[in-house]
Amino acid sequence: MVRAHPASFDPAVLKNVYINKHNVDEQVKNILINNQVWSKENSFPWLVKAVTVIDLTTLAGDDTKSNVTRLCLKAASPLAPELVKRLGLPEGKVKTAAVCVYPSRVPDAYNALKRLGLVDEIQIASVATGFPSGLYPLKTRIHEIEYCVKNGANEIDVVLDRSLVLTGQWNVLFDEVLQMRKACGDAHLKVILGVGELGTYENVYKASMVSMLAGADFIKTSTGKEAVNATLPIGLVMCRAIRNFYQMTGIKIGLKPAGGIKSAQDAINWLVLVRSELGPEWLSPTLFRIGASSLLDVLEQELDKTAPPIKQ
Length: 312
Fold this sequence. Notes:
Layout: H1 21-34, H2 43-52, E1 54-57, H3 65-76, H4 81-87, E2 98-101, H5 106-116, E3 123-128, H6 138-150, E4 155-159, H7 162-166, H8 170-184, E5 188-192, H9 201-213, E6 218-220, H10 232-249, E7 254-256, H11 264-278, E8 290-292, H12 295-306
Parallel strand pairs: 1-2, 1-8, 2-3, 3-4, 4-5, 5-6, 6-7
């Protein structure tokens, strides 16, 4: 069920937004210092949790049906069977949250997951709306969303036109996201802010609020194609926007960092940040995702170091 959203934008929510970069950086440091979980004994549940919130992604120019099929197979069984057994995890239960592909590859992902009987368990996310720039006519961006939904995508990762943020055209931005929300129908709308190109933390906060007010189910840091992608200070700003929106409306919005999350420590740091700022209920695939292509292999390697050998 798509949640209700306002038909018009109230600019009052963007007044008096001032963010001190130094304070944000210091708060992130303090959160990590006060929530140290990186040890062989403590890291296991965090690593498994990280696996289950991944949007396993392929966004390459040479994507084919075969490599999308392999992506879906990996999402269905992200950890080697022997490792699952050593970790004492239930067989066949650990999966990534979603696969994320280009619009033209959505039918391939849908068909692969249908053959596996996992269409209802692993979400199909598609980037859309002129990814990664967003600088396409709105009409074609809307048609792209409709194409993805028609072919089986149940999550749409749209990208904002960053020029609207940089020029302060908040009403236009709101109206565009609102139309994208309507085009998604029952599919979840994940709005990519492109934080590395927004200029200031204030713009990150404002773009987050406008996107949520217009109906975003998730706000996402980056396309992964910008020079600066998911950083923890930017994540803190977005978490604060999500928390303020929840206090205003009672609606919980999800967060998806993407781009630059390469190590197991990176993944755990994001989990710690979200748990600290938003609460443990946010650490589920319904409210938190990590967009990544190579992270899963790294997490599997770390879990292999953690897992005890199988008793003979």
